[in-house]
Design a protein that fits this description.
Shape: flat
Strand content: under 5%
Subcellular location: Cytoplasm; Nucleus
Region (Disordered): 36-69
Number of helices: 12
CATH superfamily of the domain at 134-287: Tethering factor for nuclear proteasome Cut8/Sts1
Number of strands: 0
Family: Belongs to the cut8/STS1 family.
CATH class of the domain at 134-287: Mainly Alpha
Order of helices and strands: HHHHHHHHHHHH
Largest sheet: none
Subunit structure: Binds the proteasome.
Distance between the termini: 192 Å
InterPro entries: Cut8/Sts1_fam (IPR013868), Cut8/Sts1_sf (IPR038422)
């Protein structure tokens, strides 16, 4: 067979057009494009413009400051408030300790003037005076007026200048004596031995007050004697009323009271004769003293 007879009866397509033959260059481009598209589809989308930033509590759910744990915030605020109150109390206490007695009295007077409803509560909180506290108060007052004397090599002077220096503390002592007497006579009347003992202590305190050069300056001391004598007479009469109502007082106790009065009468050169007369009239018979003597 000739070569012409071996030729196909229909024309064959060109080699490059065969669909079963892959072109390497075109395949590479196709695969690269597909890979690029696949990679791009798996990346995170870009953040939206204008979207607000999440709160720290949302971005960190394990943070204990989160609103999911309100009890922690409450506990912290309570502890802070307690510390503030404790510090305030400590500061108030330290300030009160540093104040003088006169400053404390003035402060409480201003407080009760502005808030009158606090008076009953303050009165209920103040400790009641006792004989021991009274003695301490008198010792403090005595020390204060003695220190007020102007310095002198010859000892305390009793002239007009010294009286001017000491007078404020004498007025303070007078107020304390009267206030204590009112308290014991009004509130401790059911304990007559306590009242008599206070009057005995207060009278001795007046005995120790200075004697001044000018007679007019000594009137202060005489006024205190007169006030104390009134208290003695008032309470002796009260004891007489109690006896009439059936109250009984022992001889040893009544004898001790009589001894106190006699002592004060001797120191004052007879100034306590009126209280002694009242005592004889109402209580003298208990210890065998005739009221007519």
């Amino acid at each position: 067979m000739s070569e012409s007879s071996k030729a196909p009866c229909f024309p064959l397509p060109p080699t490059d057009s065969n669909p079963f033959i892959i072109n390497n260059s075109s395949a590479s481009v196709t695969l690269n494009n597909a890979s690029r598209n696949f990679t791009t589809s798996r990346q995170s989308p870009p953040p939206a413009i204008g979207k607000k930033r999440k709160n720290d509590n949302e971005s960190n759910p394990g943070d204990f400051r989160s609103n999911n744990y309100p009890f922690i915030r409450t506990t912290s605020s309570i502890g802070k408030r307690y510390r503030n109150e404790y510090t305030s109390q400590q500061t108030l206490k330290s300030l009160l300790v540093s104040l003088e007695k006169d400053q404390l009295i003035e402060m409480f007077e201003m407080l009760t003037d502005r808030h009158p409803h606090l008076r009953p509560e303050l009165f209920s909180l103040i400790p009641r005076p006792t004989l021991k506290s009274v003695q301490i108060a008198f010792e403090t007052l005595e020390k204060k007026y003695q220190e007020a004397f102007p310095y002198s090599k010859e000892g305390p002077s009793t002239d007009a200048y010294a009286f001017t220096r000491v007078r404020p503390f004498l007025l303070e002592a007078k107020g304390a004596i009267i206030q204590f007497a009112e308290h014991f006579i009004q509130t401790e009347s059911q304990a007559p031995a306590l009242v008599i003992e206070y009057l005995h202590i207060a009278t001795h305190f007046v005995h120790r007050l200075p004697q001044w050069d000018q007679p007019s300056h000594n009137q202060f001391k005489l006024d205190l004697y007169e006030k104390l004598i009134e208290y003695w007479i008032e309470f002796i009469k009260y004891l007489g009323e109690q006896i009439e109502c059936g109250k009984i007082f022992g001889q040893s106790l009544v004898s001790q009271w009589a001894s106190h009065l006699d002592e004060h009468n001797n120191i004052t050169n007879g100034c306590f004769q009126n209280p002694i007369n009242e005592f004889k009239q109402h209580l003298g018979w208990i210890i065998g003293i005739d009221s007519r003597r």
